[in-house]
Amino acid sequence: xxxxxxxxxxxxxxxxxxxxxxxxxxxxxxxDLGRKSLAIASGFNPNSLIIPKQTHxxxxxxxxxxxxxLDTDGIFSTNPEMVCSIQVADxxxxxxxxxxxxxxxxxxxxxxxxxxxxxxxxxxxIKEKDFSLLDYDILIGPxxxxxxxxxxxxxxxxxESGFVEEKEAGKYQINLQEMAIFELKKLGFxxxxxxxxxxxxxxxxxxYHSYRRNGKKAGRMIGLLGYNLNSFSYILTPLxxx
Length: 242
Ligand SMILES: [Zn+2]
Hints:
Elements (H helix, E strand, L loop, with lengths): L5 E3 L9 E6 L7 H11 L7 E4 L7 E3 L4 E3 L4 E4 L5 E6 L3 E7 L5 E6 L1 H6 L1 H11 L7 E5 L9 E3 H4 L7 E5 L2 E4 L1 H12 L6 E3 L14 H4 L6 E7 L1 H12 L2
Bound molecules: zinc ion.
The site of zinc ion has 6 residues, from loops.
């Protein structure tokens, strides 16, 4: 199910029950209301949203009930009734879904989160629950790509050198997506299960908001991830007749 205002990314995941959504610039509502409207439009229960208040931290939490979660940049859940949500504009929306079980998460990975270890924190939280890292499909959604992500001398040392290219004196382009994939693989996720859409939010100005392009007034895209309750209600229908 797609619309002109958002894309359904579910077909990138092998878990048949998972539904992954990402909104475009044309979906103009944001914040809590935007997440609720997008949930309704894409067939999720708007009352099941988990809403992290993102702070470019490396805080990752497993959450079993809906509502707001303060100072958190990544949410995982094992409750198939819950819907993880995030907002981004250039930062990477990273979707995690176990291939068969109800374990899923959505992580907001900006360059600061990446260099500060937010992916390592995600792996740590998963392992704390005694879940293996081997069976996850991981999707990196639309985000600023190497073509447009440039940094200066002051911060370039924080990035893995293999993903840095000097463009001109004192200016460097960084491939954040490749660096994220490298990190995920190093942490123990399977490289063949990781996909980056490689869509640049900065270049595609008609399709996406971009913080680097538009500054503080930039809008945000919304990512949602949860179980497709339509498939549940289908399975549960015979029981309700009992
Ligand atoms: Zn670009």
